[in-house]
Design brief:
mainly alpha; about 60% helix; Serine Threonine Protein Phosphatase 5, Tetratricopeptide repeat; elongated; about 0% strand; about 190 residues
Length: about 190
C-alpha cells in the first residue's frame, strides 16, 4: 500500500521535472541560436551545451560541433560531429555531416585557422537542416531614404496648387454680379 502511494506521487513529479527540463533546454537553445546568428560562437557554444545537459537531443551535439568549427577548433568539432552521427544515425543531414567530417580529417592542423565557408545554420528541433550547397543569406532591410524638406515633396505642391485654385475661384465668384432670379411662369419679377 505504501509503495503504491510513493509510485503515484513520483509519477507526476517526474513528468513535471521532465517538462521543466525540456523548457530549460529550449530556453538555452533559443539563446544559443540568437548568439550563433550574430557570430558570437563562444557564447552560443555554452548555451548549446547547457541545452544538451537538460535534454540530450542529438541536435544540440550538431550545434555544438558547428560552434567549434566556427571557432577553428577542428578536433573538438570532429568529436562532436562524430557524436552527432552516432546519436542520430538516421538524421536527414547525415551525408552533409559525414562530408564535413572528411573535410576536417583531411585538413592539416595550422597555427591560424583558415576562413571557413559559411556554415549551415544551427539545426532547429522542428525544421529540416538546410540543403547542402544552399547558403543561408540574411538580407538587411533597405535603408530609409533621407527625409526631404516639406517644400520638396510632391504632395506639398499639390496642396498649394489646390489652395491657389480654390482661392482664385472664391475671388471670381465674390466679384460676380448676382443674376436675376428666375421667376415662375406668369409672375413678373
Amino acid at each position: 500500500m505504501a509503495v503504491a502511494v510513493v509510485v503515484a506521487l513520483v509519477g507526476p513529479v517526474g513528468r513535471a521535472s521532465a517538462d521543466e527540463a525540456q523548457n530549460k533546454a529550449m530556453e538555452h537553445f533559443r539563446e544559443g541560436r540568437k548568439l550563433y546568428q550574430i557570430s558570437d560562437y563562444r557564447a552560443a557554444l555554452q548555451e548549446f551545451k547547457r541545452a544538451f545537459l537538460f535534454n540530450e537531443d542529438p541536435v544540440f551535439l550538431f550545434n555544438i560541433a558547428q560552434c567549434h568549427r566556427q571557432l577553428g577548433e577542428r578536433e573538438e568539432a570532429l568529436t562532436f560531429y562524430k557524436r552527432y552521427v552516432a546519436a542520430a544515425p538516421e538524421a536527414q543531414n547525415r551525408a552533409q555531416v559525414e562530408k564535413i567530417i572528411r573535410e576536417l580529417q583531411s585538413a592539416r592542423p595550422t597555427a591560424a585557422p583558415e576562413p571557413a565557408p559559411p556554415p549551415p545554420a544551427p539545426v532547429t528541433l522542428a525544421a529540416r537542416p538546410p540543403e547542402p550547397g544552399l547558403p543561408l543569406v540574411a538580407t538587411a532591410p533597405a535603408p530609409e531614404p533621407e527625409s526631404a524638406p516639406v517644400y520638396k515633396r510632391w504632395w506639398f505642391w499639390g496642396l498649394v496648387g489646390a489652395a491657389a485654385a480654390g482661392a482664385a475661384t472664391a475671388v471670381l465668384l465674390s466679384r460676380r454680379q448676382p443674376a436675376d432670379p428666375v421667376c415662375p411662369m406668369g409672375v413678373k419679377c
